[in-house]
Amino acid sequence: NVLYSYYEVKSSMEERPLVDLEFLQKLSTLILCTQKEAVAALFEHLQKSYHRNKPLYILQKGEIFFAVRNILNGILMQINGLGYGRRLPEYEPAKGFGELLGELRDAALDLCDCIEENKKSRNEDLRARMLDYLQENFRDPGLTASRMSQEIGISETYLFQFIKEQTGSTFSACLQALRLDYAEQLLRTTKLNNAEIAEKSGFGSANTFYRVFANSYGLSPGKYRESLKNTEQ
């Protein structure tokens, strides 16, 4: 492990390493969590430390560069590239510490952008899959969050969390809204009775359909259908 091998080498030295295990772990966590401002602040802090003690930092310039670069490379390997479009900076002894540090900072921020973009893309794909699944299956009265999560391939807890995050509603509320909308269409366009509409829209029973519809529309299904006829006249 790059983190620990670097730390062990530096621990054997008389002075405390300038870029230690805590710094490297924090940098790795912040990049993976796409905390760009915090990543930039971490490099800024290191830059300020360099200006306060240039001789020591220059002495350890190569070790610091490779310790940080190895962390960035480890993250890149962990995320399998994810379309990262640039090469990590290479060590050039002729460059000053500040310049090398700036290149590492830019690479770290680019990694944050890459991970964030991939996260958005995955979220959009999952959102589309969830909505498609609900559209295709809401008429099934046996549909549950447990079954949906298994068939989509995520945990039930994450399903609840993601639907709430993406729609502002719970799984049950989304499912009920789809069923109500379809039932309302059937009331407008067919002569089906409550039991038939309940079956076709996924409510399972006429009583459940009647109760949910009345609570939502303020009218019973029959009264709602009558109001549509009166409007047409």
Commentary on this structure:
75% of the residues lie in helices and 0% in strands. Helix 2 (21-32) runs parallel beside helix 5, helix 3 packs antiparallel against helix 6 (97-137) and helix 5 packs parallel to helix 6. The protein has twelve helices and no strands. Residues 1-14 have low confidence and may be disordered. It has helices at residues 2-11, 21-32, 36-52, 54-59, 61-78, 97-137, 145-152, 156-167, 171-189, 194-201, 206-217, 221-232. The radius of gyration is 29 Å and the shape is rod-shaped. It is an all-alpha fold.
Fold blueprint:
Layout: H1 2-11, H2 21-32, H3 36-52, H4 54-59, H5 61-78, H6 97-137, H7 145-152, H8 156-167, H9 171-189, H10 194-201, H11 206-217, H12 221-232
Secondary structure category: mainly alpha
Low-confidence runs (pLDDT<50, min 5 residues)?
A: 1-14
- Helix count? 12
Question: Average pLDDT, to the nearest integer?
Answer: 87
Using only C-alpha atoms, the radius of gyration works out to 29 Å
Largest sheet: none
Number of strands: 0
> H/E element string?
HHHHHHHHHHHH
Beta-strand proportion: under 5%
| Basic shape | rod-shaped
